[in-house]
Design a protein that fits this description.
Chain lengths: ~80, ~650
């Protein structure tokens, strides 16, 4: 699975599960989830669980940061690094 | 405890039909299953349905004054009626009954509205003087008992304990008030005088209204919650006044029981009641099949330690779904939580054991700062001085949310620390407001344009008392909690309505105004000291309860909110209500947006409080609309039983008859 596929999968997941609460919002891959109000704290819990399950990686508590989970691009980079 | 209703017209000539009064009586008969009375006057009519608790044979209403022709319909209890009666008798007053109703009427006759300050209780009343064509409506200090009214263009005033009595009169049509609905999706309930129905208002807690010959001539508070006291009371004062409050609330000519949640507040009340009554109390608890919500072990520990005769009902998702339509019909509002439903089922169980009065611990968390919301406020205050310590404490809040704080990521701290501007007087409540507002994302686009979503909060900001700015952040939060959650939601949809649905009267010892005054004047650290809450009450609890019960941290009362609607036993009407056709009935929510929520519900993905509140909000709005406005809006049938009191002033102006 390449980086572009990961990015597209994450976008689809976020669109299905979070963007339906924000009608009209177009989310770019670099957009900051928190600044745009897309994810709340339980959204983060769900997103992290999905990333662990889908990409078969373990996410430690201290890795749940904006640098790793703040945008689609950030998560994509995190997943690629963890799987490397 | 009872239900009341009536119609008054500006002039005497246009009658109020007896059949209309009988329909109104029927609409609130659940509040008074023991019988009813009615009065036909010229251009006016009144009904009272009775749940007999004090002076069982003699306490029937409406009650007429032989002195000045005044007439009282009264819903509730004044607990200090014995002392007031003695005082009035010493002043030469005679009594025909042993009821508190007659004491209230005599007090009003003698002292006018100044009498209200002397009444210790929970009540809503209507006091009528035909000669002056003056009606006075009054509601108790905390709004334990409801009182709704509507003023027609012709000056006719229609009132009732519940809005359904107004609709049953045939004088008032039910229609949604969009701003009222938006307020439910902001604060969990409408803040009086607003209701979810257009043109229907409710008296504010501690409020009174005077209507004279077609016009409302006065609307004012006769009591208001005064905070900002100076730490002059002690733990011992609180214990003494609470004990007295419980003793007063045991006064009844029927057996009194108690609710046991398993938490500190109801356990203390039960322990005091058992001591005061000197006999085994019957206690009642809700247990849940889902261990996430269940407090059974704690309830059983307290019941066993106190030696009560304990009853437990176990509630699962199927029972919640099955009872929700009836709960909404009684609550008369959309809901964002399912928590009222188990209490509806519990009241049913209480009634099955022939108990009609129960004591509960409601009010302690507001008076003594027990909710996590107060800790949230304290942590924000601490953040200025010790930011790292504050953030650590923050992670200990809301442990029941389903995932540890460390897994909630950066959104968690940002949400709790950054929501709302620092100078916003409502800041303490804006996290809850923002989470609740998720339901508004589902508004139909046409409707979204009609609703100014900031208006509820603007109205609240404009209604803050002048002294608000001088209070501490915690006192401000307490005032907001009393005004926005306690009365509009906890005492209503989750209190009076679900208990009175089964003719069960809840009594609230913490909501004795004397207890409120003592609690307000406690030193702040006796309410919240660091993260240790309700120190003053825990001091008392340590003398009354097993040590682990006295020290037990607060567990908020919650009920399952997703499984009832998407679990295997979910009823068919849920799917219908959430379908495009079902949603179009009320037209409040957009089918395309709701489809996303349904998809997540079906996939078992709804876990957060935001989506679950949205789900309950959308489902209950559909039920509310069907019950009052749409397909199931009842054709209002008249009461068919014979009235216990029937006073016809149209034919025999001066003569009263008791059947």
């Amino acid at each position: 699975m390449n980086e572009s596929e990961v990015r597209d999968q994450l976008h689809a997941f976020i669109e299905d599960n979070f963007l339906y609460l924000h009608p009209g919002v177009q989310l770019a891959h670099g957009d900051d989830f928190l600044a745009r109000g897309i994810l709340d704290s339980l959204g983060f819990v769900e997103l992290v669980e999905e990333v662990q399950r889908r990409y078969d990686i373990a996410v430690d508590d201290i890795e749940i940061t904006e640098a790793n989970f703040g945008s689609i691009d950030a998560i994509t980079g995190f997943v690629v690094r963890k799987r490397a | 405890m009872c239900g009341i209703a009536g119609v008054v017209r500006p002039g005497r000539e246009h009658p109020v039909e007896e059949t209309a009064l009988l329909r109104m009586a029927r609409a609130v008969r659940h509040r008074g299953p023991d019988g009813f009375g009615l009065v036909l006057d010229r251009g006016a009519g009144f009904v009272s349905t009775r749940l007999a608790i004090v002076d069982l044979p003699g306490g029937w209403q409406p009650l007429e004054s032989s002195a000045d022709g005044g007439l009282l319909v009264y819903n509730g209890e004044v607990y200090n009626h014995t002392e007031l009666r003695t005082e009035l008798q010493a002043a030469g007053e005679g009594f025909e009954t042993g009821s508190d109703t007659e004491v209230v009427l005599r007090m009003l006759e003698r002292y006018g509205l100044d009498a209200l300050d002397r009444l210790n209780g929970q009540f809503a009343l209507a006091w009528w003087h035909a000669d002056a064509r003056r009606l006075v409506l009054v509601r108790d200090r905390f709004g334990v008992r409801p009182l709704h009214y509507a003023l027609r263009d012709d000056g006719t005033l229609v009132f009732g304990s519940e809005a359904k009595a107004l609709f049953a009169s045939g004088e008032i049509a039910a229609a949604p008030d969009l701003e009222g609905l938006d307020e439910v999706f902001t604060l969990w309930g409408t803040r009086p005088p607003r209701t979810p129905f257009r043109g229907v208002r409710q008296l504010p807690p501690g409020g009174l209204l005077i209507w004279e010959a077609g016009r409302i001539t006065a609307e004012r508070s006769w009591w208001s919650a005064d905070l900002g006291r100076d730490g002059t009371t002690t733990d011992a004062d609180l214990a003494d006044i609470l004990r007295d409050s419980v003793a007063l609330r045991l006064r009844a000519d029927v057996p009194v029981g108690a609710y046991l949640s398993g938490g500190l507040d109801s356990s203390v009340i039960t322990a005091l009641a058992q001591q005061e009554a000197g006999e085994r109390l019957q206690t009642f608890s809700v247990a849940f099949c889902d261990p996430l919500f269940d407090e059974r072990a704690h309830q059983e520990t307290v019941a066993a330690a106190l030696g009560t005769t304990h009853h437990t009902i176990e509630v699962g998702p199927e029972q919640i779904a099955a009872a929700l339509p009836e709960v909404v019909r009684h609550a008369e509002t959309p809901l964002v939580r399912t928590a009222p439903v188990p209490l509806f089922l519990l009241a049913q169980e209480v009634r099955r054991h022939s108990i009609t009065v129960v004591l509960t611990g409601e009010g302690a968390d507001e008076l003594l700062w027990g909710y996590d919301l107060f800790k949230e406020v304290a942590i924000r205050e601490l953040h200025d001085r010790e930011p790292q310590r504050a953030l650590e404490l923050l992670d200990g809040l809301y442990p029941y949310l389903g995932a540890g704080a460390a897994r909630r990521g950066p959104a968690w701290r940002r949400f709790l620390m950054e929501t709302g501007a620092r100078e916003d007087p409502l800041r303490s409540h804006l996290t809850r407001v923002e989470a609740t507002a998720t339901v508004k994302a589902f508004y139909h686009p046409d409707l979204a344009e009609q609703i100014d979503r900031g208006r509820s909060l603007e109205r609240l900001r404009a209604a803050l008392p002048e002294s608000f700015g001088r209070w501490s952040a915690l006192e401000r939060a307490a005032w907001l909690e009393v005004k926005t959650l306690l009365s509009p939601y906890l005492l209503a949809a989750q209190g009076d309505r679900v208990a009175m649905a089964h003719g069960v009267e809840g009594r609230f010892p913490f909501l004795d105004h004397r207890v409120f005054d003592v609690a307000a004047a406690l030193a702040p650290e006796r309410k919240l000291d660091g993260m240790r809450d309700k120190g003053a009450l825990r001091e008392l609890a340590a003398k009354l309860l097993p040590s682990d019960a006295a020290a037990r941290p607060k567990q908020p009362y919650r009920a399952p909110e997703v499984a009832p609607f998407f679990g295997p036993g979910a009823p068919d009407w849920v799917r219908e209500l959430l379908s495009p056709a079902g949603l179009s009935e009320a037209g409040i929510f957009d089918a395309k947006r709701v489809a996303g929520l349904v998809r997540r519900g079906q996939a078992g993905r709804i876990a957060g409080i935001r989506e679950s509140m949205a789900l309950v909000g959308i489902v209950s709005t559909g039920l509310w609309h069907r019950a009052f406005i749409g397909a199931d809006a009842a054709a209002h049938a008249p009461e068919t039983a014979a009235p216990r009191v029937r006073i016809d002033r149209c034919r025999e102006p001066a003569k009263a008859g008791v059947a």
